[in-house]
Queue: 3 jobs
Job 1
Amino acid sequence: MLESYLFYGDIFDIVIFIVVKYMSLTNNQLTTGVQNYEKRILSIVLLLSCSEKEMTLDEEMAVDIWDEINGYESWTPPENFTGIQESNSVHGNYVQIWLNEISSEFFRDTTTGEIMPSGSIIIKEAYTDEQGENKTGITVMKKIIDYDTVNNDWFWVSYKPDGSLAGKNGAEKFCYNCHQPGRDYVLFNR
């Protein structure tokens, strides 16, 4: 019966089930029962800790962005920031940046305003070495209209080198506080 609770029920149902079982035990059964239930509770906790949690909307967006940027290594680098450059930022000792076509056009057109258009994507790879042989992470900024109007609608996401999510994503105070001095939160073009 407990197996069906694990499959169909939620944690509250499991706790109620265990409490009811304890209440039905006699004193002699209780000692043996406690040991058995401790093992079952430990098994349940281990099972639940291994299960996948539901993704937040920001995490879902971050996964979609990873799919969207597939092949970014062929995108255009900023004119004043080509190849791997030394960095003194939290991203790594060395970084390389790529721009999608929308971002690239924004920086090429000297008549544009200060605010990048929706759909702009900037990607920064981080490395521990200047050859780029040891990638430590990938950070992406994507401009999404009406996402975070207080901070110019930037969506921030960090990935591990394999593309899995690394840390928080979305409207990240840590990111925009550091990037605020830049032109529309972009630091390489100051």
Job 2
Amino acid sequence: MQEKNLTYLRLFVVLLPLLLFLISLTQVAFTNEGTDEIAVNQSYLVLLGGPFIILGGATFEWLTWMANPLALCAIILFLTTTRAKKLSSPTFIPNDWIFILSIGATVTAWQFSLWKEVMKSESGSMGDILSLNAGYWLWAISILLLALGIIVYFIFLRKFLANKAKTLKD
């Protein structure tokens, strides 16, 4: 693989999950029993309200929302670590935090699919999750693709650097 192809792969690793994430914001995330009726939770509202739900006592829901900043930190670290200047160094070592953050975001996002109920009001009452909708699945898949893309990128990068070192020896 050439260095130019690595650049394209690097962009693809970030842009595809971001595109899926943006599409997920236009969809319904999940449906649950509300206080008086069935509540339909739009993805963009879940994203915007996420940092504040802990104030209402929804600690576990807030921890699930934390997949977003974990993924964002993984993207930033991935982009800053894999700049062309750093890759040209023969002693390049990927930052382990990229893997930890992306896999942590993936586990955090996907664990919500195992939930049976969520907090439906600040009083602490719980409502059954009736369905996980397209918004949730697109969001979770976008984070999974980010983690898988980062892993694939570093596999190709390792091969590229090994070939580069081999040609420098010869």
Job 3
Amino acid sequence: MAVDLALVEIVRKGVDARANVPSPDPFPRVLRVEIEPIEHLTYRAKPTAEPHFELYVDEPQDRGGNDKGPSPITYFLTGVATCLLNQFVRLAITREIPISVSSMTVKGVFERTVGGGFKEIVNEIHIEGDISLEGLEELAVGAEGYCYIHNTLSKAVLMTTELYLNGDHVVTRAAGPEA
């Protein structure tokens, strides 16, 4: 994975700034996304902080949708995974850890019933590079700590992080009510 050197300093400043925010945050942020119904189960989402992006949300035809965009659950799991992944990459850049992420998979285990919900969300991260197991565990702790989504969901659902280093499964971390 290529790292844009021009962005490295921005990443460092952002990580440092977050590390110095007191808890609880005296100035909580608000992120807003405007949702526009298009047709049937198809929606256009526009993040107000990033107005140059539009996301289309739908359901597959076998669930009554028009199949014009990923389902809400797909976007949800994508957000869960990429938020955590961003923190791994940001901290590796900031700490000058010589690793790269070769791939990531997220799996959501849920009950498809009225009143159902997610039972577990598993993030599998495949990392290549030169880092000790202790260093990788420390990186994982930091990444999970910086990830708003992981912190929020771990209060309600089992969040599992499976780490692979140079092709070998090396660490399993669990957080949440059943951890």
